[in-house]
From TrEMBL:
<keyword id="KW-0456">Lyase</keyword>
<feature type="domain" description="Orotidine 5'-phosphate decarboxylase">
    <location>
        <begin position="9"/>
        <end position="229"/>
    </location>
</feature>
<comment type="subunit">
    <text>Homodimer.</text>
</comment>
<feature type="active site" description="For OMPdecase activity">
    <location>
        <position position="66"/>
    </location>
</feature>
<dbReference type="InterPro" id="IPR011060">
    <property type="entry name" value="RibuloseP-bd_barrel"/>
</dbReference>
<dbReference type="InterPro" id="IPR013785">
    <property type="entry name" value="Aldolase_TIM"/>
</dbReference>
<dbReference type="InterPro" id="IPR018089">
    <property type="entry name" value="OMPdecase_AS"/>
</dbReference>
<keyword id="KW-0665">Pyrimidine biosynthesis</keyword>
<dbReference type="GO" id="GO:0006207">
    <property type="term" value="P:'de novo' pyrimidine nucleobase biosynthetic process"/>
</dbReference>
<keyword id="KW-0210">Decarboxylase</keyword>
<dbReference type="GO" id="GO:0044205">
    <property type="term" value="P:'de novo' UMP biosynthetic process"/>
</dbReference>
<dbReference type="InterPro" id="IPR047596">
    <property type="entry name" value="OMPdecase_bac"/>
</dbReference>
<feature type="binding site">
    <location>
        <position position="214"/>
    </location>
    <ligand>
        <name>substrate</name>
    </ligand>
</feature>
<feature type="binding site">
    <location>
        <begin position="64"/>
        <end position="73"/>
    </location>
    <ligand>
        <name>substrate</name>
    </ligand>
</feature>
<feature type="active site" description="For OMPdecase activity">
    <location>
        <position position="64"/>
    </location>
</feature>
<feature type="binding site">
    <location>
        <position position="15"/>
    </location>
    <ligand>
        <name>substrate</name>
    </ligand>
</feature>
<feature type="active site" description="For OMPdecase activity">
    <location>
        <position position="69"/>
    </location>
</feature>
Length: 236
């Protein structure tokens, strides 16, 4: 289920504890201007029904549950996401080649096949966080390694920081999708994000999709904040 009319790269992250504020915000947004992301908070709180409600409003849905499990469990979870008719679903690339290949194979059995994306290194992580988990390398190096592995497994692209998109395009080609959270308009709070760029910088880097949550959802006027970002991108 893909909206043929949305050519905007913006994906709004609906991180809410219940369905009502998510649907209320979606009703103020335009499906030709953005897609929506349902993540762990909203999905765990209210379940798959909210996905259907948002689809009924005309939006493509990125189901951001970042599956990471043994190959069989991960593949079946990705298959269940496909059955919800979502536009995009993701797994952690660090789950490995066999896990990602199993997920890809499961989708190939489905009549509806969402885009399947591998999460490289969370945009909230910096070098010291990687060191804490025993990875004595720069985030960029780990991102490139996991992007190559994701492409080998036959997935459609990766979640990464917009800062890494140039490198990934060189390593994996321009058709390999880059989905980039950690987007912070100038003057907005960085919060827990570490590897950030503004929407305009992300566009210059050539990102395929940019995921934006709090700078829109916590704005005084979320619909206006979203429209301003979309317009600033289409004006370039
Ligand atoms: O590496 C990642 C992967 C996923 N996310 C998700 O994107 C949004 C970002 O929200 P903001 O409020 O704009 O920070 C959020 O739902 C994360 O779970 C990410 O940030 N980084």
């Amino acid at each position: 289920m893909t909206s043929p009319t949305c050519d905007s790269p913006v994906v709004v992250a609906l991180d809410f504890p219940s369905a009502a504020p998510a649907i209320e915000l979606a009703q103020q947004l335009d499906p030709s201007q953005c897609r929506l992301k349902v993540g762990k908070e909203l999905f765990t709180s209210v379940g798959p029904k909210v996905v259907e409600s948002l689809q009924t409003l005309g939006f493509d849905i990125f189901l951001d549950l970042k599956f990471h499990d043994i190959p069989n469990t991960c593949a079946k979870a990705v298959g269940a996401a496909a059955d919800l008719g979502v536009w995009m679903v993701n797994v952690h690339a660090s789950g490995g080649l066999r896990m990602m290949t199993a997920a890809r194979d499961e989708l190939q059995k489905k009549s509806h096949q969402p885009l399947l994306i591998g999460v490289t290194v969370l945009t909230s992580m910096e070098q010291s966080d990687l060191a804490d988990i025993g990875l004595d390398i720069e985030p960029l190096t780990q991102v490139e390694r996991l992007a190559r592995l994701t492409q080998t497994a036959g997935l459609d692209g990766v979640v990464c920081s917009a800062q890494e998109v140039g490198l990934i395009r060189e390593a994996c080609g321009a058709d390999f999708l880059t989905v980039t959270p950690g987007i912070r308009p100038a003057g907005s709070e960085q919060g827990d994000q570490r590897r950030v760029l503004t929407p305009q910088q992300a566009q210059q880097q050539g990102v395929s999709y940019m995921v934006i949550g709090r700078p829109i959802t916590q704005a005084k006027n979320p619909a206006a904040a979203c429209a301003e970002i979309v317009q600033s991108l289409s004006a370039r």
